[in-house]
Amino acid sequence: MTIVVTGATGQLGRLVVEALLDQNVPAGRIVAAGRDLAKVADLADRGVQVRQIDFQDPASLRRAFAGAGKVLLISGSEPGKRVEQHQNAITAAKDAGVGLITYTSIANADHTDMQLAAEHQATEEALVASGLPFALLRNGWYLENYTDQLRTYLEHGAVLGSAGDGRVSAATRADYARAAAAVLLRDDQAGKVYELGGDTPFTLSELAAEVGAAAGRTVTYQDLPVGQYTEVLVGAGLPAGYAAILADSDLGIARGELLVTSGDLSALIGRPATSMREAVVAAAASRHEGTVQGADDGWGREPRSQRALKRRRPRLTPDPHAPASKVAGPTPC
Ligand SMILES: NC(=O)c1ccc[n+]([C@@H]2O[C@H](COP(=O)([O-])OP(=O)(O)OC[C@H]3O[C@@H](n4cnc5c(N)ncnc54)[C@H](OP(=O)(O)O)[C@@H]3O)[C@@H](O)[C@H]2O)c1
After folding, report:
1. Is residue 313 situated within a structural domain?
2. Final residue of a domain: which of 139, 157, 181?
3. For residue 243, which of 121, 180, 224, 238 is within the disulfide window of CB 3.0 to 4.6 Å?
4. Which whole-number Å values give the CA distances from 174 to 4, 37, 274, in the listed order?
């Protein structure tokens, strides 16, 4: 029986396929499904089955899930459309008679009030209503939501947000992917609910301090009223509705709703999760290496030495009207 991974053309899904291959799952037993199969052509070359799906096209889902023992449903990336899309996938999985459907939900889905959680909560309800055996991977925030913004943080000398002193249990996509693979490879997972997040939660002030330490500069956290932070995100080019959802997620962090204390992630992957400090240092090092090679890598357009970076005077006042490239927000969650 095959294991189908939806979203395999995306960042998390690809890492899940790689994790399954690392665990010696035969390539031919893995189905990498997504819209744009060009992104998984290399996996096809390695013997992984690839199948085109669109969550809006039930027939494509039925074709992809035919003969599957297990399906990993990775949540789609189009907020507002996901309940219908996920329902289509659940229906197709039921029609195909899959033995287990595993869904990447959101941390604390059973009690969070974050707007972003609504589609995940509706999907969990749809899974219950389906009668299918299912397992929930309630993923916390990605560390990459932050490390992908190092350039922005350094340009402004600031991390912006509305999370106050709230702590977030973020972890890398790679760690969430290894956990997903572990669940897919275990027996008797029906009914399991995993609350997944990093081992050491952090505040955005602590994040700013680590970014500053990695760059040898002063970076501070500036807590903004949620309306102002929303304006910053809109100024950065995010659609208003999505900017509001992201800013609302920071309020969720302030309320502790992206805090995870279960230890499930490190237990599933068999080692401590990659920490925020490790991720920041790794991201900074890779970007700095890029700078030395002359790339426009987020540490500035001009190649500069670490000493010059340290001399650069930080700008601590965020510019709400900065263009999108200057103040990027995280991707849809
Ligand atoms: N926990 C967090 O912090 C966080 C952050 C961001 C996102 N997320 C959630 O986690 C998911 C995976 O994250 P990621 O980083 O891997 O996102 P990603 O790189 O944007 O990948 C999204 C995947 O969803 C697929 N997809 C989107 N719409 C689809 C549709 N209509 N039909 C079929 N496939 C569709 C994409 O396929 P194509 O590329 O082939 O179009 C892609 O494979 C996201 O989709 C989002 O729901 C969580």
Report:
1. yes
2. 139
3. 238
4. 18, 21, 9
